[in-house]
Amino acid sequence: MAPLTRPPRLAPGARVAVVAPSGPVPEERLQAGLDILRGWDLDPVVAPHVLDRHGEFDYLAGKDADRAADFQAAWCDPDVAAVLCARGGYGAQRMIDLLDWDAIRAAGPKVFLGFSDITALHEAFATRTGLATLHGPMVAAVDFLKNARAQDHLRATLFEPESVRTIASGTSVALVPGRARGVTLGGCVSLLAADLGTPHARSCARGGLLLIEDIGEEAYRLDRLLTQLLRAGWLDGVAGVALGSWVDCGPYDGLRAVFADRLGGLGVPVVEHFGFGHGEGALTIPFGLPAELDAEAGTLTLDEPALA
After folding, report:
1. I want to staple 134 with a disulfide (CB 3.0 to 4.6 A). Which of 44, 102, 113, 185 is the partner?
2. Is 116 a catalytic residue?
């Protein structure tokens, strides 16, 4: 797995576009998030359809074509330095193939930020553009609005990425001890499994440091998802695994047993409670960069800053 191209860091006054590739966005939360961005001396612009609601499917932020058009226009605008997702939910997979990935690649590297359902877009950027992305808090997400650690870590990553080259939650525990080097990737394990067999999906995570989390998936469903990835050979050659938050997934003792059973046989370091994902105070994790994972120290150390 080769390292991906880092986009430039943000500077004060940078214009950032806010898009909604997935679920509907509450207006009051969006406005609160925009205020935070303005407080960082950024210039946020909201895509035309961010507050739309799909007429038939109330879990979508407007029509697939409109969400795709917003994303395309934002990315290809030369005045936009970053494209930030407003929230996750569901719907990114429905619009990915409506995007002109040749035009997106030609528009050059810029910051892309999101998590949860946005996992599908992280994978698409990796395989279709070779661009590194940021898995982190979204503009209209409660954690971004309410949690100082989530805000501070994201802000440092965007403006002073050299200050957060070593990422540590402070609460992590080694499920399988050891150190490993590789290129970071991951997101919601359910979305990674859903990507299997689709056009442009990566064939496996060989040489990667896999960072996974999810929400609302019970132990047996996480077992099924990990088993699917194992049976498909997608985890063949993975270098190490970091486990993030598992909100509403059931008692953690049961989840730990699943992780030990399904991941312990890989023969690679595995660390749990790594502090990214849907939990409170989520850390921002760069995807597509070479790094070292130390399961016992609970650290992910990037070879170079997340942004150039």
Report:
1. 113
2. yes
